[in-house]
Amino acid sequence: MSDLLGFGLLAFTSFFTLINPIGTMPVFMSMTSELDAEHRNKTARKATIAAFFTIVAFAFSGQLLFQFFGISVNSFRLVGGVIFFLMGMDMLQARLASVKVKTKLEKKSYVEDISITPLAIPMISGPGSITNAIIMMEDAKTIQSKIALIGAIFLVLLLTYLILLSSSKILKILGNTGKNVLMRLMGLIVMVIAVEFFFSGLKPILIDILNSSNL
């Protein structure tokens, strides 16, 4: 029982650190600043649900999918880095704030666009959390430990959803000037994250190429 509890606690802390819902919140706030509270909450719900199913799907079939398509986690990091960098550029130039969504159809379309990419993938369920899910599922030898792992993922994403919901109140306090300043600041941070993602994926690929060329 103590081993199961320890495994569940390890799963929770590792996923909470990798998903980093507190760090995701400012980006979410910037991307949904033009939406009303109802559509902002809907975006948070869709993004966290999509992220949950993505992480669980990779937990059970990640290695098989990667092997079947010949995809590596490092390639996933490269793509995530490019997506993050482009998003950071838009945030830095306040392009995201200029998106005006007035009609119900426009709001629905915008929610559909951003809730899956980039919020659910790769912002919430990024290379780190997906890799962690695959590794921890391999370590989960019993049914109980697998249930504990899924439970930990669910709990972290539930907390992520609740944290994103609180962004509505924060946006009211910040006002338009505060939102623009926050967006530009987060744009810089997202671009730094993008560079880290990109080079953490590129380095192992280059090492493999150099090693294979030396053989």
Number of helices, counting only DSSP H or I runs of 4 residues or more: 8
Strand content: under 5%
The percent of residues in helical segments reads over 70%
Radius of gyration computed on alpha carbons? 19 Å
Low-confidence stretches: 96-101
Note the gap between the termini.
49 Å
The class by helix and strand makeup works out as: mainly alpha
Largest sheet: none
Succession of helices and strands? HHHHHHHH
Number of strands: 0
Mean of the pLDDT scores?
81
Query: What would you call the shape?
Result: globular
Describe this entry's structure for a reader.
This protein has helices at 2-19, 21-31, 37-69, 73-92, 104-124, 127-139, 143-165, 167-214. With 215 residues, it is mainly α. The protein is globular, with a radius of gyration of 19 Å.
Question: Summed up, what is this model?
Answer:
The chain is mainly α. It has helices at residues 2-19, 21-31, 37-69, 73-92, 104-124, 127-139, 143-165, 167-214.
Secondary structure layout plus pairing:
Blueprint: H1 2-19, H2 21-31, H3 37-69, H4 73-92, H5 104-124, H6 127-139, H7 143-165, H8 167-214
Helix pairs in contact: 1-6, 1-7, 2-5, 2-7, 2-8, 3-5, 3-6, 3-7, 4-5, 4-8
List its traits.
single chain, 215 residues, mainly alpha, 8 helices, 87% helix
